[in-house]
Batch of 2 targets.
Target 1
Amino acid sequence: MKVVIDTLGGDYAPFEIIKGAVNAQKKHDDLSLILCGKEDEISECLGKLKYDKTRIEIVSAPDLISNDEIPTVAIREKKNSSLAVAFDILKKDDDVIGLVSAGSTGAILTGGFLKIGRIKGVSRPTLCPFLPTKKGGYVLVADCGANMDCKPINLCHFALMANEYYKERFGKENPRVALLNVGTENHKGNDLCHQVFPLMQQLDINFVGNMEARDIMSGDYDVVIADGFAGNVLLKSTEGALKIMMGEVKKSIKSNFFARLASVFMLGAFKNLKKTYDFNSYGGSPFLGCKKLIIKSHGSSKAKAIEVSIDEIITLKNKNLNYRIEKAIENAKINIEE
Amino acid sequence: MKVVIDTLGGDYAPFEIIKGAVNAQKKHDDLSLILCGKEDEISECLGKLKYDKTRIEIVSAPDLISNDEIPTVAIREKKNSSLAVAFDILKKDDDVIGLVSAGSTGAILTGGFLKIGRIKGVSRPTLCPFLPTKKGGYVLVADCGANMDCKPINLCHFALMANEYYKERFGKENPRVALLNVGTENHKGNDLCHQVFPLMQQLDINFVGNMEARDIMSGDYDVVIADGFAGNVLLKSTEGALKIMMGEVKKSIKSNFFARLASVFMLGAFKNLKKTYDFNSYGGSPFLGCKKLIIKSHGSSKAKAIEVSIDEIITLKNKNLNYRIEKAIENAKINIEE
């Protein structure tokens, strides 16, 4: 099986991207890589690494889609961009099971939606990153920005897809699925919540009701469903607050002589903390609901994150995730289309 | 002038509420208090405090509206509740300039909306709490949960009202007003953002564009505008993440012998940090746009928070906030009603 990699997207492209891909290759004997990007740069990077030449293909696609470009325009018009070419390969080659990119989120979503297309029955694919919880597990947020204005059916599909993904990705039966809301009581929320709540109750998932934003990392929920706007606000404000607090802790320590002295003994403890709550150390976010597997790695991904993203694509393929999603939506169809 | 106080709402009612009110009275010679609640309890609390008897009135209103009750029903049906009675007094007595309550947010919003009514021209009043920023100032979020589904005109009014409030409350000319969005680029967002963005540009405020949720405490913004659902998610996820991080820092320290030992020297630094980011230490959130001044104090308010809330009502009255809001909306009318 093959995985196609966009080597130009991300802050540490191309070397860290290529290094991560090569590291993944070493672990999977049946994995071939297709690296899209600037040929000479890729060759140069590979020259510094040990890898199996028979299982690597380089495809010239020297243009980069930046984060500032309008995704729909860029994907269509930048035909020689690493991402557009990677999507073309993903679409045409049946042996290619998935794509990994640390590039423009918007362009990845557009590429997945327009070039690869949706799994049968899926109204909207969803981007769903996960966050660490204080109990040690992970919580998935679907959707986090792929879909701005959503209908109730979209949120039901997010729930069904994320539920299947969580089961396979984290090996947990009956993940606890919640609806993001302004309070936990059943009657809370905006019009969308009012419409979605009773539909969620009908789905064949472990729907545990509404969740308040402050409890996202409580460890009491596995999957949280929201429209892409609210999900994005949830994710980014959490990320922002964690970052600020880490900075403030450092500042507090530095402001006091004894604290500064004492902090030497605490470096290890703080390092662990930083690792747990550093979003960049995780693989990436799946873009669920497309006909092939797509992982959006964080823009600041280093080799490890890319390696983990490729691992994940192989795992999800082996577990037939997309087939499970199709079946879950097919079986739920009657109940949620009112 | 008089301020009416709901003595039954809040975790530390009635004593801390009454103590805070009495402390405010001491600072303002022309301030009279009307305390609504259980007469005997109020008298008992007052017995423990020093205060000017000629400027305190006790009104019997022994019922409590709890957070679990449906606000619209409770405010209508619990006629002898401390909050409903307080609103009746606020409405009828021209000398009463404002109301402070640490009780049910929903009931306070309902009471303000239904019993007091809106300032002329205001489409929807807004609840707008403020958060500390890492640069030492404050950022106001309007709306934070009073209005779930909003139209563009509502967000424009939030901006105009919060802008006037910020100027008077924090003494800052031209507060930087931003729109909560999923990215900073002008074209980002959901339908509501697309409609609101050009309207904001037309308003006579210092509109600085879109803000991402992760930058809420950056200190680069003074006022952030959102519909009540997204604003609520923004506020609560920030609050939740800060709390978790404080807990994790403590846990990290405890897990290591040397760190535990060293932490003794750092207690002062952490205490300062906790104080800065403890939302409960601030006064309360104004419910802007009603004909009289209403402050919702945090549920866990102690005396200081109540005192500050009363101070604020006096300040805002002296600065003619409601008149300024009416004028701001009147002057902007032509531009924003398309």
Target 2
Amino acid sequence: MGQRPPTPPAQPQQRPVIAVDANGADRGPREVAAGAAAAARRGARVLLFGPAAELAQAADRAPTAGPLRGGVEVVDAPVSIAKSEDPARAARSTPEASIVRAARAVAAGEAQALVCAGGTGAALAAGLFNIRRANGIYRPALALPLPVPAHTVTLIDVGAGAEARREHLVQFAFMGAALVQVMLGVRRPRVGLLSNGEEATRGSAAVVEAHAELRAIAARSGTFEFAGNIEGGQVVSGAVDLVVTDGFTGNIALKLIEGVSQTVLSAVRQRARSGPLARLGGALLLPSLGGLRQQIDPERQGGAYLLGLRRLAVIPHGRFSARGFEAAILRAERGAAEDLVGRSHAAMAAQGALRRAPVSAQAASLPEFG
Amino acid sequence: MGQRPPTPPAQPQQRPVIAVDANGADRGPREVAAGAAAAARRGARVLLFGPAAELAQAADRAPTAGPLRGGVEVVDAPVSIAKSEDPARAARSTPEASIVRAARAVAAGEAQALVCAGGTGAALAAGLFNIRRANGIYRPALALPLPVPAHTVTLIDVGAGAEARREHLVQFAFMGAALVQVMLGVRRPRVGLLSNGEEATRGSAAVVEAHAELRAIAARSGTFEFAGNIEGGQVVSGAVDLVVTDGFTGNIALKLIEGVSQTVLSAVRQRARSGPLARLGGALLLPSLGGLRQQIDPERQGGAYLLGLRRLAVIPHGRFSARGFEAAILRAERGAAEDLVGRSHAAMAAQGALRRAPVSAQAASLPEFG
């Protein structure tokens, strides 16, 4: 037999391309472009959709041209639906919108993940219509890693849907666990189901059913550890890595956490102005409270993650600075490179958590990236 | 015509009698008795159910004997179901339990309101089985006035039920508004419906339907002002006086508020130990933070209010001190004296918010007190 040709030397694996919608940020598209340039300086490959005239200068701060070797390629897409009253309708009826074009670039395989600061509604609609749900997924969900002191807890769903059935909550656990594994390096995330009591019988019908199923799944697989029901007080206590809930409750919980934190810190600040001694005390404590603010800084986590589509989408908050958009792009890149979507999909398939439907009714898979 | 006899001189109106279950408090029945004695010193009339041997001494600190002229009358009821695994079952199967005997005293007209520190589950079950739902009420709800800095916001339902339909949420608004009027003196409470977005279309189906009905009711009646949907962040912002939600979400929200407050204050305290300057600052600020803690002290509000029964029940937290039990008794007395139950019932009747059912299926009304 003839000798087989030697294996070609391993090519350095190409980094995934990230499609970024520059419209919608509070500080304007240039802030997003500055974030993209910063990510490109760390080797990221970005397709940046937005008003080219405005973006070119900021994006040029990237060290190399062309997305294939690391860098930012600007695609002129000046139309924005970020301020639309009805983002879902706008996403359907405005094919030239930057968010739609960015999502289509992902659907077409020109990019492997999406980053969009133009609002959750627009990103969700553009993602659903163009990137589409992954096979067997009932409903996408929005996950948010929330830095609490000395810990990060991820909430899923924080508002992609409103109500959730048992099978939705179960899929949220798988998708969120994969996110925590990839983004936070937690090998076997502790998953808690948010409820109005710790007992397995407490909660809505969907929560009680999901509790039983999650317990059974965790017992037979190593994907995650099921900590059972957790109450509101345990969300920020560090008891679990992932909190599973419906989008109605999750959205309320998220905004309560933000609101209560601000209210308490404001009250402390106000107390620190309540008299000369307190004022001096506040002044001396102030630098350390800055450190606390740093520790719970949402920009470091890149924003919210839209899970359940055929590709990952990251939704940084519109008020983020360039630093937050840079983090979002680098996180999206990591999610694509480590095949976050495929990983959670495989775990769900192994545990029978995917929706069983006629093949014809399912959206075709996108070709795998890698 | 003969002269009519002169109207007899107005009798000083008798103060209502409050039935108090002394079992279940973390610090034991004597702590409740001390609270009852303190309330009696302010003229309250208390029937105190608990272990008489243990209670007599504490209750004797009350100035006058016998409940009719202000004072504490101890009823020997040593059996406690406060630590029961299944309080609902225990309340049905333990007629000699102190909470059941206290509830029966209210049902029999010997007392006009109930105070119980023995846990929400036991109080809810004993109240439902003995005092029973008021005519036309779908489901009782638990309301909690929550002191936030410079404001008090009341949450309803914080956990009497789990899921809630449109008509439940609408009744919660009426019952909570009456509570805010009577207990906090707010003439026309601003009512917000907790949801995952401010738009009238956001939320679960029940929330969307309740939003429409509450808007219509507020437009044609002066009972409350409807502020529309509020998001989680607005719960503690002072935007509304009353937050209406289902018991699942309300319980999670309440425990999140407690947990996040504690976490943030702990983080501030920890920061205040992070270096010599911060330590000095923390020490100087400490007395003022004590004032903040005072301001958000839950004992001042007396605890949670169980609404929707034929008589008012107040559920102070088990960890309260005598001061909290005293507040609970005085609040219960005010609720009875100002006919909180009748007031919200009349408002619901006027707006067609009561359940329409065959009279035979309805529980008979208790005779009015006054």
